[in-house]
Write a structure and sequence with these properties.
433 residues, alpha/beta, six-stranded parallel sheet
Length: 433
């Protein structure tokens, strides 16, 4: 396999320490091409069934959410935008009074709302609108009918999956304190309902419990947290949420992320070990699931084995997905770029990547595109804005955001996950004919 030769000034330096710390990383700082954190509302509003996300922003924010969500004109979604007008910016109207009025009208029209998120945007942060204090004020006014909190979805310094991280981190201080002395397991990260139900059934078969999920589907079912809480991250981009949980006494179970058969097995094994479940019992429960996953992955592996893949930084899913492609589909990750690299959470994922793989953190778009063109990978994983230009240059691409919106966790989704990477190559081959 070929490896991109980096100029001496760009070559990453190894840092002594743990195994994960010794993985060399190319740190990029420059032009970025990512969605903002508001995009996280698209999957969060589907999960939190009695919540509403009120973005305090501009018409551009509203247009982004409408186009990204594909909301029908007749639908009544669980998100909206309180648009900052010129009169607000000119000081002709008090922004806090206007926000109070909008919230009151919204809650009067939608009595089904039990949790309201005030979501900050680039415009609201630029004019220094303190939504945290607004949430405190409005909570006192509308308590106990509605729980109101605030978080930032601004894209000034963040990438789009950090919207979920900020949302869940804002929820953690509101979680009730765990009262019982027995261990409990908390699964952290938004999962499609079907995937959450699958994991719940597996934990029940293993005899692990009680098991809770964050976020919960309803605001009156928020999980308790305390020193006896053991948690598994379902998503690799939840650094702030993990820190907030640990401040409450929860302990993270170190595991691979549940992508593919190997990752899901390791993820479940970490829970089984923490709860004293016999290894033979774990193997007996998951054996048929692993076999089914292997059969589902096989067609894609036949097509993808030996192919070279390049990840441009986008969602923070890049490292565990590259590990899945290398381990289970036989692909060669040429470079794995990620917006932010949380070494502690990704240590074991990094150790399983091929030694030839370049790891890059951050983004300098022009340099990275130069490396993509030089490498000529079989498949490039990138953002929507880069896909068409790269396709025009003859490269085959995959939209990174589709990997966030699709159910890809667990054994039953392993074949679907593999197919997401195989489909662009199949499409390329058909078009060439």
């Amino acid at each position: 396999m070929s490896v991109i030769a980096l100029p001496p000034t760009l070559r990453p330096q190894a840092v002594p320490g743990t195994a994960a710390d010794c993985v060399p990383v190319l740190r990029e700082r420059g032009q970025r091409e990512v969605f903002c954190g508001l995009t996280g509302i698209i999957w969060l509003h589907r999960k939190l069934q009695d919540a509403f996300f009120l973005v305090v922003g501009s018409r551009t924010c509203a247009h982004l959410l409408q186009s990204a969500a594909g909301v029908m004109v007749f639908a009544e979604p669980r998100f909206g935008t309180a648009i900052i007008e010129e009169r607000d910016l000119a000081g002709m109207a008090d922004c806090h009074d206007e926000l109070d009025r909008v919230v009151a009208e919204l809650l009067a029209r939608r009595p089904d709302i039990k949790m309201l998120f005030l979501v900050g945007s680039c415009p609201s942060e630029v004019i220094k609108l303190d939504l945290a204090k607004a949430a405190q004020r409005l909570s006192m006014r509308h308590h106990p009918a509605v729980r109101i909190t605030a978080y930032s979805g601004s894209g000034i310094e963040t990438t789009f999956t950090e919207g979920e991280d900020a949302c869940l981190a804002a929820l953690v201080p509101q979680l009730p304190a765990a009262q019982h002395a027995a261990q409990q397991l908390l699964i952290v990260g938004t999962l499609p309902d079907i995937v959450e139900d699958q994991f719940a059934r597996i934990f029940a078969q293993l005899g692990i419990g009680p098991v809770a999920f964050l976020p919960a589907r309803r605001s009156d079912d928020l999980p308790a947290v305390g020193a006896n809480t053991r948690y598994l991250l379902a998503q690799p981009f939840l650094g702030e949420t993990a820190r907030a949980l640990e401040d409450r006494g929860a302990v993270r179970l170190d595991a691979l992320f549940p992508f593919g058969s190997i990752g899901t097995t390791d993820w479940l094994r970490a829970a089984a070990n923490a709860f004293g479940i016999d290894s033979a019992h774990l193997d007996a429960v998951i054996a048929p699931l692993r076999e089914r996953a292997a059969r589902a992955i096989a067609p894609a592996r036949a097509q993808l084995a030996g192919k070279r893949v390049f990840f441009l930084p986008d969602s923070q899913l890049e490292v565990p997905l590259a590990r899945f492609l290398a381990q289970e589909l036989g692909m060669m990750p040429v470079e794995v770029g990620t917006p932010y690299l949380h070494r502690r959470h990704l240590a074991r994922e990094l150790d399983l990547l091929p030694v030839e793989t370049v790891i890059s953190e951050g983004q300098h778009l022009e340099r990275q595109l130069d490396r993509v063109r030089a490498a000529k990978p079989d498949l490039t994983i990138c953002g929507l804005g880069l896909a068409n230009p790269l396709e025009a240059e003859g490269l085959t691409t995959k939209w990174a955001i589709e990997l966030v919106f699709s159910p890809i966790h667990g054994f039953d989704q392993a074949g679907d996950l593999a197919e997401l990477f195989a489909r662009p190559l199949r499409r390329r081959d058909v078009l060439r004919v």
